[in-house]
Structures are given as C-alpha cells and as structure tokens.
Write a structure and sequence with these properties.
single chain, 348 residues, extended
C-alpha cells in the first residue's frame, strides 16, 4: 500500500504541533535560564560602571529585590510541582471518599473495605513481607559484596558484574526470571530452576503458582536488581573510612570480625541508613515485577498493582484511590525519618 497523505494528515499535524510545542518549551527554558540572567548581569555591570565613573556611591542590591529574583527562578519549579504533584494528590484524596464511578460520596467506606476484604488484607500482608525482606536482604548482600571485593585483584570487574542488573529495567529483569522459573510439564525443562530440580531427581513445579512461595520468588528478583545499588553505596562508604583508624585497629591486634563490627559498621552507618531507606521506598512502590511476572494473580498482588487493578481494570476509582492514599501515608514516615537523619548528620 502506498502512502496516502490525506489519511495521514491528522497525524502529521499532531506531529507538527508536538514539534512546535517542544521548540516553544525548550526555547522558553533557555530564555529563562540564559538570556534573562545575562540581561540582569549586564544591567548590574552597567550600573556599577556608571556609578564608578560619576563618583556616586555604588548601588546596593536590596533583599526584597533578591527575593523576587530568586522567586523568578523558583516559579517554574513550583508551578510544575503544583500541577504534577499537589493537584493530583488532592484529587486522589477526594476520589478516595467517593464510589467507583466518582459520583457519590461514601466517606471512609473505601478505607474500611481495605481492612475487611480478605483479598485486600492479603495484598497488605504481601506488601509488608516485601518491605521487611527486600531492604534487609538486598542491603545484606550489598554489604557482603562490598566487603568481599574491597581491594580485591579484579575489584572493578567484580563490581561491574554485580551492578549490571541495575542497568536492566524491572520489566526486563522480570522476563529474565520468568524463564528461570518456567515450567514445561514432563521431560526437558526450559526453566533453569526446574532443570536443576530435575537433574537432582526432583519433580518440576510451577513455581509462580504456589503461594506464598511465589511472593518470595518475586522478592528474589527485586533483591537481584537492588543488591548492586547497595554494594556501590556501601563500598564507597567503606573506602571513605580514614586509613589511620584502620591501621590503629590493626596495630591493636583486632581480628577481622572485630574490625568489621567495631570499625567498619559504625563508620558506614549513615550510608547503611540511606540504602535501607531508599530500598524501602522503592519496595513500597514496586509494581513492574508483580505486573510482569504474575499480574498480581495467585496471591502475589501488592498495593501498587492492586491500586492499578482496582482503578483501571475494575473501574473502582474510589477503592483504587484509597489504596493510593494509603501507600502515600506509608511512605511519609520513611521520608520524615530520612530528612531528620540527614539534618542530624549536618548538625553533627
């Protein structure tokens, strides 16, 4: 079939509008970030030169003027935050107090449904298991890797291989591990895990269908991805330990085990907290792995995936919004703890 310009004209117009909008936005940002500050700078320099030539006192910048100048640059960011975060958050809170069609107010009924429906209680329990296991296990493996490869002969290569899963998207990693867990009845298995079981004389299983084992197997995917991140951060913290402290401990005759618990762990505590908090927030929001691997079936759903299912698959906007608000509430204490921890580190 040939190219029909008349049929494709609406698409070409939309493409043109998109290109024009892109040029306008990028040009506007360049104007704000380059042309306008340069104009203010040239104006200030001209004032200084004129005052110096006439012998008049140099003009001073008033604080209100500097405040307006700062507000000028903060305004685009504040506007984007308002449009992309504040307004949707308020709208979601309002929708959580309405029914599935978002037409009638139901009060806190959707929140009561969350804790009374057995399937949603299972979702909350699954999320709790994720939050308890992923940060601790991923941080533990990351710390183990960091200690083992520190100052090793092939340290750079080892760290690159360990960090490599971070370069893969959650969807890509889930597809890879679905092949690992794959099941093919009797005979030769295409799934690595089932092939190992068969070679050892066992029977192949449909791993992702057996609850609660399937949830633990999905957690393995998250740990595999995030352990590299934990390793990089903790390895940097270990290398930042002052050499004189390590040398003094060795002269005192401490064992490697004592060195780890008495020197290394206290020194890298801030980095450990950062890693655990970051992984906790990422785990609370996990969606891709569950969606790609099981679609939330077989008792593997978590809050984020169930929120999507309720709002977009089942048309229950109120229940989906209630889950979103509850997830937001769960993240808030973690964020507050991290802010307080960073403030204490600065003051210390």
């Amino acid at each position: 079939m040939g190219f029909d310009f008349a049929d494709e004209q609406p698409k070409l117009l939309m493409l043109m509008y998109g290109l024009v909008a892109f040029v306008v936005v990028v040009g506007g940002l360049l104007l704000l970030l380059d042309v306008v500050p340069a104009w203010f700078t040239r104006r200030r320099e001209a004032q200084l030169v004129a005052a110096s030539a006439s012998g008049a006192p140099l003009p001073r910048r008033t604080k209100p003027r500097e405040g307006l100048f700062a507000l000028f640059f903060l305004l685009p960011t504040l506007l984007l935050l308002l449009i992309g975060l504040v307004v949707p958050a308020i709208r979601t809170m309002l929708l959580s107090l309405m029914d599935g069609s978002s037409t009638n107010w139901v009060g806190l009924r959707n929140y009561g449904w969350m804790f009374s429906d057995d399937s949603i209680v299972r979702v909350l329990i699954n999320t709790l298991v994720w939050v308890l296991l992923v940060p601790l296990v991923a941080t533990g493996f990351g710390l183990l890797y960091a200690v083992m490869v520190d100052k090793a002969r092939f340290e750079a290569v080892a760290k690159s291989l360990i960090f490599l899963p971070m370069a893969i998207s959650f969807v890509g990693a889930s597809i890879i591990w679905k092949f690992v867990y794959a099941y093919r009845g009797e005979g030769d298995q295409i799934g690595l895990l089932n092939q190992i079981v068969v070679s050892l004389g066992g029977e192949p299983k449909q791993w992702l269908l057996e609850s609660p084992l399937n949830t633990l197997l999905l957690i393995v995917i998250m740990v595999w991805i995030q352990a590299g991140f934990a390793m990089v951060v903790l390895s940097a913290a270990i290398k930042a330990i002052p050499g004189d402290i390590v040398e003094a401990a060795r002269l005192d005759g401490v064992s490697p085990w004592q060195m780890f618990w008495q020197i290394t762990m206290p020194s890298i505590r801030p980095a450990l907290i950062v890693v655990v908090v970051t992984l906790t927030i990422a785990t609370l929001k996990v969606f891709d792995i569950v969606r790609t691997s099981t679609n939330g079936n077989y008792d593997t759903s978590v809050i984020a995936s169930e929120m999507y299912n309720q709002a977009f698959r089942y048309g229950q906007n109120g229940q989906g919004s209630a889950l979103a608000v509850f997830l937001f509430i769960l993240v808030i204490p973690v964020v507050i703890y991290q802010i307080r921890n960073l403030r204490q580190q600065r003051e210390g």
